[in-house]
Amino acid sequence: MLKKAIIIIALIQNSAFALEITNLKPTECVGKICQSANVTFSNVITVYDVKYVKTEDNSHLIMPLTSGRAKNQYSNVRIESKTLHDKLIDAFQNRKIEKKDILPIDVRVLSARKLLSDFRIANVNILFDGELLVTFGLLRLTTINYRTKTPTISEFVSIPKNFKFQSPIFENKIKKLIKREGLRVSKKTK
Question: Cα-Cα-Cα-Cα dihedral of 175, 181, 184, 189, to 10°?
């Protein structure tokens, strides 16, 4: 039995790593100040449409929101550390990014929660390097073979629209982790 679902992927050596901004592709700029950009971290994951807002007193970031069916807004990508926040502010202001190779990332399942829906059965929160928290969904689809009248159940991972994996190998490992944790919590009864 897993304790608090802390799992580290084989590609990780130790947890002393920090997410590095390896690409900042502006999508909206005013003068030399970038207002919105797609940000790639450690050459492995990309977050789309991160907004930078500068006021008289300070600067801050607005992370992208995901729209649900009932026009609800969900914050599926969140910054969890001041260090990453400050790195992003600096990157938006200076637009200087050092090119780096693919960097190892510490991946942890922060939480997994069973949902009441028959379709989206669980939400799994993954923490990348202790700095970026992303909520993934585990979906269950039941199809019926009309010849044999037998149902086939399959699960797949729902990735937020504003988030993308740059490495298919890394993506597959994370999806396996999400499926395992999502199925584990969805089988629990209240």
Answer: -120
